[in-house]
Sequence to fold (179 residues):
Amino acid sequence: MAETKIERERLKEIHQSDLTEGRVNQDFLDWLKSKGMTYLLVVMVLICGYLGWIRWRESRVGHQTEAWVELSQAALPRAFEDVADKYPEVGSVADLARLRAAQRLLGAVQTNTAVGADLPSTDPTAVPPAPLPLSAEDRRDHRFGRQIRRQDLAGGDGFERPGHGGGESRQGRGRGSIL
Fold:
């Protein structure tokens, strides 16, 4: 008899817990019907926004990577200018591209070679082209540029005058000292 009483109480507790769980489940279902769709929609919008933000970041990183790769692959001044025009908003790519284009053009003028003549050829039997001669105006501009650099380094007007050059003073000429 004691066992039957214990079993009845146990069955009563199980039945009570089933009723409580049923009430909780019914309350949850009622909440889902009344407000669940609104919250589900908000969660879905947040997830879609987050995924869109991740995709935008990846495309931006891809665009930056593409810009740096094109900058590293450019060899001629025109290619550098194209990179600068194509990617003006990507970091310092545009500035570096313009500087490298100017450097290549300046190097070609200073060495009296055609632009791109210093690039390695893919054909092993190719003969390098002869350098283009500088015009008289280019040679004059080049000499004038050297004179200005001397002037900047010396701190004066850059022109040596008789009796004032060599860094010697009149008193030190005979004794071999430089004052």
Remarks:
- The chain is about 65% helix and 0% strand.
- Residues 2-73 form the longest helix (72 residues).
- The two ends are 129 Å apart (CA to CA).
- Residues 74-114+136-151 form one domain.
